[in-house]
């Protein structure tokens, strides 16, 4: 079907006669951010940093490699838990790049998650790292190389079965106590 936009450019679209369905291979989940973990830019996200942004009703976009011209799906669930920012969503099978992303994630070639945000409140900690206490979350992308190497698709909500994960829990608690004492 053809139509003309306000600019006079021709726009082509096709109305689907059936409901779209998604296969299980198009569902992705994992942690896009971990509390207390230093990323490669020297930033640390504090627990609660996303709360205000997630509560404002804005839809967080799912992008490919942070490219605003490449939305590839929708996030059905985004929430903070004790570990970090948990996301679960669907790649849209009618989007060519999403089908490619599904194939790449299934093969293990892509497994990184990364956040796009604006810093609202931050402070330096005793180690000189920038601690993000409030951010405005815009998007979560599937990426090849996440800024936080631990931000990955893993398909297991609440996964915490390694010594590194346990050490992270203790570090988060230590930082929370230190921040409270400093106030």
UniProtKB/TrEMBL annotation:
Source domain of life: Bacteria
InterPro entries: Peptidase_S78_dom (IPR054613), Prohead_protease (IPR006433)
Biological process according to GO: proteolysis
GO molecular function per UniProt: peptidase activity
Transmembrane segments: none
A Pfam family this chain is assigned to: Peptidase_S78
Residue ranges occupied by any Prohead serine protease domain in the UniProt entry: 23-156
Keyword check for Cell wall biogenesis/degradation: no
Keyword vocabulary terms for this entry: Hydrolase, Protease, Viral release from host cell
Protein name according to UniProt: HK97 family phage prohead protease
Source species: Gymnodinialimonas phycosphaerae
